[in-house]
Amino acid sequence: MKFNQVTIKDIARELGISPSTVSRALKDHPDISPETKKLVVDLAEKLHYQPNSIALSLRRSKTNTIGVVIPEIVHFFFSTIISGIEDIAYDAGYNVIVTQSNESYEREVTDTKALFNSRVDGMLVSVSRETQKFDHFKALFDRGMPLVFFDRVCESIDTSKVIVDDFEGALEATEHLILQGYRKIAHLKGPENLNISEKRLQGYLKALEKHNITVDESLIVDCSHGTDKEGMEVTLDLLNADNRPDAIFANNDMAGLGAMMAIKEKKLNIPNDVAVIGFSNWRFTSLTVPALSSVAQPGFEMGQEAAKLLIKQIEMSDDDVLLPETKILKTTLIPRSSSTRK
Question: What DSSP state is assigned to residue 182?
Answer without folding.
Answer: -
